[in-house]
Specification:
The chain is of the alpha+beta class. Helix content is 46%, strand content 22%. The protein is built from 3 helices and 6 strands; from the N terminus they run H-E-E-E-E-E-E-H-H. It has a 6-stranded antiparallel beta sheet with strand order 1-2-6-3-4-5, covered by helices on one side. The model has no long low-confidence stretch (mean pLDDT 81).
Length: 200
């Protein structure tokens, strides 16, 4: 009987450990993305004509294979705003052109007749350079890092409905954990009180 009880308690402890680990993983993985998306949503509402950024950092989800194998579809590129003198040939940049945001590599830097710098770009997977040269004003920033294959998650979390549902779930989990911990503390105090009274 005692062996059965010990085995039952051991299984409960394993399940509890797995549950706690999963909850922690959810918080660790999702909370940073959710907080980032909330900031982006707020900035988008406040400044609808500007690309949202946090401390000069922007993120874009790649939806085409023009930069493969360096950057693949559904990768997230981390873009940092930079000064013009920090941009050089070979840099991967994000830029807005004709209403689109494109992430390509600078293959040539030239000057216009009035001395303005012009940047020729090309996707690593493309055989030809991009049709139009771009100016510095069109550049969103320089790529400083790539996070592979989480683009679908990030795009899903940008949906206000999805974000609201996930936040609600996380809040419910947090409240449940708090209530469970409160009950445990209460039971522990009652047990201590009972044991103390029993020994008197």
């Amino acid at each position: 009987m005692e062996e059965y009880y010990n085995e039952k308690m051991r299984k409960k402890q394993v399940i509890k450990t797995i549950k706690n680990t999963l909850v922690k993983l959810i918080y660790i993985l999702l909370l940073p993305i959710i907080l980032w998306d909330l900031i982006i949503i707020i900035q988008t509402i406040q400044k609808p004509n500007e690309t949202p950024s946090v401390f000069g950092i922007k993120t874009f989800c790649i939806i085409s294979g023009s930069m493969e194998p360096t950057i693949s579809v559904n990768d997230i590129v981390i873009i940092k705003e930079v000064e013009q003198n920090e941009i050089k040939r070979g840099d991967i940049i994000a830029f807005k052109h004709k209403g689109e945001t494109i992430t390509h590599r600078i293959i040539k830097i030239s000057k216009s007749e009035n001395g303005e710098l012009l940047y020729t770009t090309q996707g690593d997977a493309n055989n030809t350079e991009d049709e139009d040269k771009i100016t510095f004003d069109e550049i969103e920033g320089k790529c400083i890092n790539v996070i592979p294959k989480i683009g679908k998650i990030v795009l899903a979390l940008k949906s206000k409905t999805t974000l609201g549902i996930i936040l609600a779930i996380l809040i419910i989990i947090y409240i449940f954990e708090q209530k469970t911990n409160t009950k445990k503390i209460k039971r522990s105090k009652e047990r201590e009180k009972y044991e103390k009274n029993s020994t008197q």
